[in-house]
Design brief:
- This protein has 249 residues and is of the alpha/beta class.
- It is 39% helix and 18% strand.
- It folds into two domains: 2-154, SPOUT methyltransferase, trefoil knot domain (Alpha/beta knot, 3-Layer(aba) Sandwich), CATH 3.40.1280; 171-248, Trp Operon Repressor, Chain A.
- Strands 2-1-6-5-8 form a five-stranded parallel sheet.
- Helix 4 links the parallel strand 5 (83-94) and strand 6.
- Helix 4 packs across helix 6 (143-154) and helix 8 (202-220) packs across helix 10 (232-248).
- The N and C termini lie far apart (52 Å).
- Bound molecules: adenine (ADE).
């Protein structure tokens, strides 16, 4: 996959792209990631990327021309087949695992980082193919969100993770939060690992994990549980959980 980022703060990306799995994915040729300075696509001496909003009000708005110039220069004129141009802004669709999966199937992503009060609406309307928000909070710019999107997408690419199993059992892959994990020591500061995990009984372990996954999702993310596809066993486990909680009251 090819990923291009267009930003006024290119220096923010080096530490993240140069570490861990993102670094290895690039070294292995799984992803080719380029970061471009939006100011290189301005036409004036001051390399201006923002201007006052039409209609008045405070703050500044990012100008459309540099974004259009940058995208057209980077992709050499014509749109690439199977590309997605994503504007990162708080007014976008929510970024979820399902969208990460969808984006990971593209040949090319171009990420546009917004700033200030916002980006001229013509960028969103006529250049971006979608606008994406990473959550219901406002950050100082689209750079951290772009890094979040890159991280979530690249780790899904074949060959990015050492262990392909990893991505399949993630939280959200089936709309549930992942079960609790433990490693050695079996007892730490008086807190023991659940006995079932030491039992070697794989059927019991699988059932325990599914149950804890359901318990956690029910408590913390009822919205996810409502959308999850549940098996007969899941419904049985949820009933057990409800009875346990009833008894604990
Ligand atoms: N820019 C500022 N806040 C943002 C958010 N929550 N998601 C995406 N881009 C942003």
């Amino acid at each position: 996959m090819r990923i291009d980022v267009i930003t006024t703060f290119p220096e923010m990306f080096a530490p993240v792209l140069g570490s861990s799995i993102l670094k290895r994915a690039q070294e292995k040729g799984v992803a080719e990631i380029r970061v471009h300075d939006l100011r290189d696509y301005t036409a004036d001496r001051h390399r201006t990327t923002d201007d006052a909003p039409f209609g008045g009000g405070g703050g500044m708005v990012m100008k459309p021309e540099p974004f259009f110039e940058a995208v057209e220069a980077i992709r050499g004129g014509k749109p690439t087949e199977n590309e997605e141009i994503v504007l990162l802004c708080p007014q976008g669709e929510p970024f979820r695992q399902s969208l990460a999966r969808e984006l990971s199937a593209r040949r090319r992503l171009i990420l546009l980082c917004g700033h200030y009060e916002g980006v001229d609406e013509r960028v969103r309307e006529h250049l971006a193919t979608r606008a994406v928000s990473i959550g219901d909070y406002v950050l100082t710019g689209g750079e951290l969100p772009a890094m979040v999107v890159i991280d979530a997408v690249v780790r899904l690419l074949p060959g990015a993770l050492g262990d392909e199993q990893g991505a399949a059992s993630d939280s959200f892959s089936d709309n549930l939060l992942e079960y609790p994990q433990y490693t050695r020591p079996a007892e730490f500061r008086g807190w023991p690992v659940p006995e079932v995990l030491l039992s070697g009984d794989h059927a019991r372990i699988r059932r325990w994990r599914r149950k804890e996954s359901l318990r956690r999702t029910r408590r913390l993310r009822p919205d996810l549980l409502a959308a999850a596809e549940l098996s007969d066993e899941d419904r049985e486990l949820l009933e057990e959980i409800e009875q346990e909680e009833h008894r604990a009251e």
